[in-house]
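ok so I'm stuck.
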Amino acid sequence: MDDAVDLNRKHWDERAAYHPGTDYYDVEGFLDGGTPLPPEAREEFTPDGNLLHLQCHFGLETLAWLREGADEVVGVDSSPVAVEQARDLAKRAGYADRAEFVEADVLDVRLDWTFDAVFVSFGSVYWLPDIGRWAETVAAHLADDGTFYCIELHPVTHSFVEYAGDTATIGWPYFADEGIEYEAEGSYADFDAEFEHTHAVDFPHTMGGIVSALADAGLRIEFLHEFAWCDFQKVPGMTEDDAGRWWADVDHDLPFTMSLGARHG
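replied:
not stuck anymore, here's the structure
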């Protein structure tokens, strides 16, 4: 397991150095007043007080919540490159006095204070070898009556490798007892990018596993929503709309994105 975590950290170190310059993240647009947060997240979640962002990558969404009502934000990521990029972005955006970034594994981190809100976003959950410990991290950092919000790829999307017409091709297990090793060429932010570290390990978690882990950790689930769009081209055969969302070319809509809201206590 330690080998898999180390392998994934190298994978993300390299992409954290590359991603801030991609059109997908549009850092310059953010600095000019734009937001990387999808409308659903801004409608479903209103952070008051301080906010913790787990697996924050290079901090773009973390900082965006300061424009949506958060007083202060803390981002946690296991990649030292990502954390350094996040600190630099906070300075460029003028938020260095309201944002802090911590290098740590989210399964082990225990900060000395609690938060009014905890946030998790796309591409986070399936990198976790232990969903129960992740949920415990969420609960340990939420103040009484604090809110948890997650907008993430729908777990079922990791099972499919292609959608077309009335056919979905299954290439990965939905139920898995261990990590799945694979070669990750390019990046969701730039499929043509070339990287040295292409080997990675995913850890599939079911929807039931995610919800149950949070409930077992003491959170009260308030809603679970599912959407037929994805924020990047998850599989071949998808088309992009004018809002930058990707849809499968299928006869019947399938879920690509989920959002979950919960409260502590």
